[in-house]
Every structure is written in C-alpha cells, then in structure tokens.
Design brief:
Blueprint (H helix, E strand, L loop, with lengths): L2 H14 L1 H8 L5 H34 L10 E9 L31 E3 L4 E4 L2 E13 L2 E7 L1 E3 L16 E8 L6 E9 L7 E6 L7 E10 L2 E10 L8 E7 L4 E5 L2 E6 L10 E9 L15 E15 L1
Helix pairs in contact: 1-3, 2-3
C-alpha cells in the first residue's frame, strides 16, 4: 500500500466508523478477534505512512545538506546556513531588508538605480521568497522614486555590532528564478563585513533584456585602484525555469557554478578576499548598466528564491 492508498484507507475508516465496519464484517461471536485484526490493520497502515514520511524526511535532510556540485577533494565542508523559506514571513534574525546605511528604505545612488527598496516588496509563501518590483511613486529622503522593489542581506546595519551571517571561505548555493524585461537587474552577491565597497563577489547578475546571459564578476583593489574581472555565459532563458547558482571560495580560487557545472574561476591569490563577507539578494530597476525600463517591461516583476545555503571550508 502506498501513501495515497494508506491515507484513503484511514479517511474511509474514519468516515464510516469502526463500529459500522466491525458490525458488517462479522457476527457478534467473532467480533473480538476481528477487533484485534482491525486494530492491527490500523497500526500497520499508520506505520506505513509514518515510515514513508520518516524516509522522506531523512532524504530531504540529506539532500539539503549536499551542494549541487562535485565536492572538492582535500576539503572538509560543514553546512552553516540552510534557509529554505519554509515559514510565512521573512526571518528577521537572519535577514535585513536594506543596505547597511538605511533603515526603513534605501537605494544604491552610486549606480543611479531607479528603485526604492521597501519591506512591503518582500514576501515569503509556499517555500519561496519573492522580491517584487513595481511601478509606484514614492517620496523618500533621497527624492522621488517611480519604482519600488525588494532586497535582503545577512549583514549588519551601521548601528549594529555584527552580521547575522557571514563567511570567510566556503561554498554558497542559491536556487532561484529571475524575471525578464528591459531595465530589470536581479543579483546575488557578497560584500565585506567592514562595510567597504570592495572586495565584491557577484555570484550572479542578469540584465533583464538578456535573460539568457549569466554575468559573473569580482571587484577588488590593487595599489589603491579598483580592479574588476568578469565573465559571462550564454545559457537557456533563466526566467523560464529554476536554476542553481553556486560559488566556491578558497584561498586558491573563486569558482562559479551554474546548475552544478563549473563555468568560471578566478585564481590570482594576491587578490582573493580573505575577510568575512555577507550575502545580498536584490532586484534592482534601472541604473547605468541595465538602462531604464521601456514600454515592454512587465510589472510587477518577481525575483523568486527557493533556498539559500552555505558551507564552511577547511583543509583536511
């Protein structure tokens, strides 16, 4: 009996009543024996469901604890973050909803972006985080903005002492589905815990007018000048399905993964970050790089995230 059959059996029995089933099945003289049989059937049925559920739970825990990529040899990986978005609201003990300089709303002026980030554009439901961009006029301390959107990060605000979560070397993995459309700019990235602008690791960036191009970048400073490195990869349209974006970061290399396959690596040890960094996920609108939305850009636009996981790294 599979789980569906077992559930139907229990449901049918509860609806008809054990007494009716008992009375119809045997004469009075044999009902005691039949009672034991029915009790055994009920226990066995519940046992099947329980065992099946327990097996599924063990499988789920094991699946969640394994990265979606080949494991590097000579390394001990310890899972330190498993955000599955299983609740009904954002976990505020882990996630902030603005950049470190802003409480209650913010934007990124350095990129000339067009959105204002607000808590109301962040939802968690059915195991999925959604960052939603909308056309909406809002007055802010930085002036009027015509779009609102969502951002989450594991860093600290300027008046807090420590990040909710950061990592120095390890592996980060995010399963997500992006929106498409001119002027949209979903991203998964990392910044240093000291609130400097570099080093910056861009695990994933996509320009909405090119949803089939995965952008990967690394920014650092060399002799007091910012240097940037990057690669892009043509893939299938990432707005049509879920994809897994991964990043391995060790003293020897920073390696980008797409759906479990290595797609780029940076190996200049002089420039590889060795400091704690926190995670950011956001959906920007407009800016110098993606350009403004046009008449074909559909709103609301949604950046959906299934999970965010991370593993600590140590040499054996």
């Amino acid at each position: 009996m599979d789980m569906t059959q077992a559930e139907q059996f229990i449901d049918q029995t509860s609806q008809n009543g054990w007494r009716n089933l008992w009375a119809q099945a045997a004469p009075a003289g044999s009902r005691t024996a039949l009672g034991w049989v029915l009790t055994g059937m009920a226990i066995a049925t519940i046992g099947i469901v329980t065992v099946a559920g327990l097996v599924a739970l063990i499988w789920l825990i094991a699946w969640q604890s394994q990265p979606n990529r080949p494991m590097s040899e000579g390394v001990v990986w310890t899972q330190v973050l498993s955000e599955e978005f299983d609740g009904e609201e954002l976990n505020r003990e882990l996630w902030s909803t603005c950049y470190w300089w802003g409480h209650g709303g913010c934007t990124n002026l350095s990129n000339n972006e067009l959105q204002w980030y607000r808590d109301g554009n962040i939802t968690v439901a059915d195991g999925v985080l959604t960052l939603e961009a909308r056309e909406y006029d809002v007055d802010t301390p930085e002036g009027e903005y015509n779009y609102i959107s969502g951002l989450i990060n594991t860093g600290r605000y300027y008046d807090e002492e420590q990040d909710a979560f950061n990592l120095t070397y390890g592996y980060v993995e995010v399963r997500a589905r992006i929106p498409s459309g001119q002027g949209l700019w979903p991203a998964i990235w990392m910044l240093p815990s000291d609130h400097e602008s570099t080093p910056e690791i861009d695990i994933m960036e996509v320009l909405g007018h090119a949803p089939d191009v995965l952008e990967m970048h690394y920014h650092h400073e060399l002799t007091d000048q910012e240097v940037s490195f990057g690669s892009d990869l043509v893939v299938s349209d990432m707005s049509e399905d879920w994809n897994v974006f991964g990043l391995e970061w060790t003293p020897d290399a920073i390696i980008w993964f797409f759906n479990g396959e290595e797609v780029w690596r940076f190996t200049d040890r002089r420039l590889i970050s060795n400091e704690p960094m926190y995670l950011i996920l956001n959906l920007a609108v407009g800016g110098d790089w993606p350009g403004d939305p046009d008449e074909d850009t559909e709103f609301p636009a949604r950046f959906e995230v299934d999970y965010v996981r991370a593993w600590d790294w140590k040499r054996q």
